[in-house]
């Protein structure tokens, strides 16, 4: 959830990079050769790990990627739910809906990091649970149905088991949001932690600047004239100490 902020950022970058690169490598020809499933998966995993490290180290990039995943999931759910009643007339409608809602959620994640991170992790976690349940109940029939709906291919009717599993997605998402908001994410903010670290660094920098100014004020200024002490005069008959 929200407490595992770095892990969520890494997972967002890993999934986003791996899925995009896998689709590009497996569906398209790379260097005039068609890559196998294993080679495409290996390349996608390597680039996904690199993307995960980038999103984990750069907070703004991680939040943007988390918002993108949330927008894609919400747009997919809306398109699948509206397809039996109002089928899209053109392939540009699903593509535009996915892209537009993904960018909107990404920008909102940069504006409200905590709320959108909680919502994104809840929706994504519920989606993973639904996919696992669909695998054991109907051998990924729901996933194939969603895939066919997105690419506007003719899809067979979904049985009541699939609709029950699909209906569990918003219920599980709402439950996950409530659990995070009331228990795990209550009274905890990664933004406050970052601000407190910056304030400590700023205070330390100010202390060092004051110390440097104090040392400069105590040190003698360059070019100042110092009067030499008068030389000791000696007279005849003085006895030097041994």
From TrEMBL:
InterPro entries: TM7S3/TM198-like_dom, TMEM198. Residues 213-242 are annotated as: Disordered. Keywords: Membrane, Transmembrane, Transmembrane helix. The keyword Signal does not apply. It holds the Pfam family TM7S3_TM198. GO terms for cellular component: plasma membrane. It is a multi-pass membrane protein. It is found in: Membrane. Residues 1-181 form the TM7S3/TM198-like domain. The chain crosses the membrane at residues 7-27, 39-58, 65-86, 92-110, 122-148, 160-179. Belongs to the TMEM198 family. This is Transmembrane protein 198. It comes from Corythaixoides concolor. The lineage of its organism: Eukaryota, Metazoa, Chordata, Craniata, Vertebrata.
